[in-house]
Write a structure and sequence with these properties.
Blueprint (H helix, E strand, L loop, with lengths): L5 H4 L4 E5 L7 E5 H11 L1 H6 L5 H15 L3 E6 L8 H24 L2 H11 L4 H13 L3 E4 L4 H10 L5 E4 L11 E4 L6 E6 L3 H5 L8 H11 L12 H10 L5 H4 L3 H5 L8 H16 L1 E4 L4 E4 L21 H9 L67 H11 L56 H5 L5 H39 L4 H7 L4 H10 L8 H24 L1
Helix pairs in contact: 2-4, 4-7, 5-6, 10-11, 18-21
């Protein structure tokens, strides 16, 4: 299964990767790889013909792991066998039959462990087992598709047509079909080896102008694949050497020169081998697949006019599209075409990104470089809807203020140009409105302010009679009087404090003078050390009399009064 030694050869084009790298992407999965591994765990029950769903549970563990990393899986199942692999399938069938005989012999001898080993290797995954997994996936909203022939070509088509972003498989032959990104050997934790097709020229050690994907495919076919056996003594290294040296554009003519280029005197390239080589090459390029968008069969790549159709004999044959559609859904057995299920995607509830949506609705969700996805912004709703739709005219200022009133978070008063503006200040003081000059605002001249309504606060009450007189400023005078009384009261407190301080200074003054220090020490009852500390700490720089403090306070009062008067006079 696959090409021998291909994955180590692709070391320069591969890297260790985790499925979390493809968060938000879609993956196409070779489901038969998981089914073979799952059948290994319940091989004894399957060999005895007992009912078991162990292989289904095994596959669902991988699916849940992918969904936990926001990767949307699409399972692809094998269909009927290609004519090119008829001999290969016969060999596998005979091998499984011989393994069953060995398992029976081991059971007769009592070697249970060896018998289980042979039984697990002899298990063949049938379409009935695949259908059980398909039904479980349908309940979970997971897309499944059965390929007309091999799953490899169907996986490659889904990747080439941008329906999926990458492919998960165990078959190294998948690289020859033209996949862009393949994740091999993925474990239950999501770790695997990612092969990128853009780096294949690094593996062949060819310049980008000398490299082509056709040369890579020719090299792999020469080394041996499922559709053609290799020539004796020719592996990947010698096949690479031949492809790198030859400059003949026709691979059919170049094949006759292999023995001379590789110096293999015992190898003879016959015409039959060259014809089989071209048939194998056409099988990789033009194998029949099912297009879920158009719901019909088509070749993997469009067949060019210079291709001989006789080389496409092993690529598969077309059948009726209605039958092919039922086969792709899993409703028909791929080998006998007998009906085994009756699921209809058109009458079922499907997820948004399902490939079975009718009228190809999922095509609009496929990411392409030519047609980028355009996201239309959502309309933002108003926090407070309008009670009534208002048509605003630029000439009417009242309508604009009414609209502002209804859209705002609180109810504001109706404002007109000729009326006063009442401003509510969040506090204890409420100031009345200030009228603008009737002549309007002059850009170059001063703004005229009229204080005819005066001030209003918790300290001063509004007098309606005084408001009638434009030249009356009693609120302003009362405010000045309150400030004057407050300043006088404060000055009296300062004078009282100064008097007390002067009395203390008079008591301590004998300590300050040096002449009377000795007499004071004899008369006092305080210790000498404490007296000396007090003398050092409380020596005043200058003496201030009560009259001097009163003069300073009176000067401060006069300055404050004059500054307030000048402010209000402006």
């Amino acid at each position: 299964m696959g090409i021998s030694g291909l994955l180590p050869f692709l070391e320069n084009a591969s890297e260790k990767a985790h499925v979390s790298k493809f968060r938000g992407c879609t993956a196409a999965i070779d489901a038969y790889c998981w089914l073979h591994k799952g059948a290994f765990g319940c091989a004894e029950k399957l060999a005895k013909g007992e009912d078991t769903n162990g292989y289904v549970l095994y596959c669902m563990k991988y699916i849940k792991m992918l969904q936990s990393y926001k990767v949307r899986p699409i399972l692809v199942f094998d269909g009927q066998h290609l004519p090119a692999k008829r001999l290969t399938e016969e060999k596998r069938r005979n091998n499984r039959r011989s393994l069953k005989h060995k398992a029976a012999e081991m059971l007769r001898l009592g070697n249970v462990l060896e018998a289980r080993k042979y039984l697990s290797q002899s298990i063949d995954v049938t379409h009935k087992m695949a259908l059980n997994l398909i039904k479980e996936c349908r309940e979970k909203g997971i897309d499944c598709i059965v390929a007309p022939y091999e799953a490899d070509a169907q996986l490659a088509y889904l990747n080439i047509s941008k329906i999926v972003d990458f492919v998960i498989s165990e078959d190294s032959d998948l690289t020859l079909f033209g996949c862009n990104q393949i994740l091999f050997k993925m474990d239950i934790n999501g770790n695997g080896v990612l092969v990128n097709a853009d780096k294949l020229n690094d593996c062949m050690k060819l310049r980008s102008d000398k490299f082509s994907f056709d040369k890579f495919r020719y090299m792999c076919i020469l080394s041996g694949c499922d559709y053609l056996d290799n020539l004796p003594g020719v592996g990947l290294k010698k096949a690479l050497k031949f492809i790198s040296v030859t400059e003949n554009p026709s691979i059919y003519n170049a094949l006759s020169q292999i023995s001379s280029y590789l110096k293999l005197s015992n190898v003879t390239v016959t015409d039959e081998y060259r014809e089989n080589f071209m048939i194998a090459d056409a099988t990789f390029q033009y194998q029949i697949i099912f297009d879920p968008k158009e719901r019909c069969l088509k070749p993997l790549n469009p067949i060019s006019p210079n291709v001989d159709l006789k080389h496409c004999v092993n690529a598969g044959s077309k059948i009726d599209d209605a039958v092919a559609f039922q086969l792709s859904l899993g409703n028909l057995d791929p080998f006998t075409h007998k009906q085994v299920d009756d699921w209809d995607p058109d009458s079922s509830s499907l997820p948004t990104f399902s490939i079975w949506l009718k009228n190809n609705m999922f095509q609009t969700m496929i990411k392409t470089s030519k047609d980028p996805i355009i996201v239309t912004p959502k309309k933002i709703k108003r926090r407070v809807p309008l009670e009534k739709e208002i048509v605003v005219d630029e000439e009417h200022e009242e309508d604009i203020m009414v609209m502002y009133k209804k859209m705002g978070p609180f109810k504001s008063p109706v404002i007109k140009k000729s009326e006063d503006i009442d401003v509510l200040i969040h506090g204890e003081i409420k100031m009345t409105s200030v009228n603008r000059c009737s002549s309007g605002f002059n850009k170059n001249g001063p703004t005229v302010v009229d204080y005819k309504n005066g001030l209003s606060s918790r300290f001063f009450k509004k007098n309606d009679e005084t408001n009638k007189n434009e030249n009356n400023h009693e609120p302003m005078v009362s405010l000045l009087g309150a400030i004057d009384n407050l300043i006088k009261r404060r000055s009296d407190e300062i004078i009282a404090v100064d008097k007390n301080e002067t009395k203390d200074d008079q008591k301590i003054s004998p300590i300050i003078t040096r002449k009377r220090r000795n007499d004071f020490e004899n008369e006092s009852n305080v210790k000498d050390n404490l007296d000396k500390r007090k003398c050092e700490e409380k020596v005043p720089t200058s003496k201030v009399t009560p009259k001097q403090t009163q003069r300073v306070v009176s000067k401060r009062i006069i300055k404050k009064q004059t500054s307030i008067l000048t402010f209000f006079s402006k």
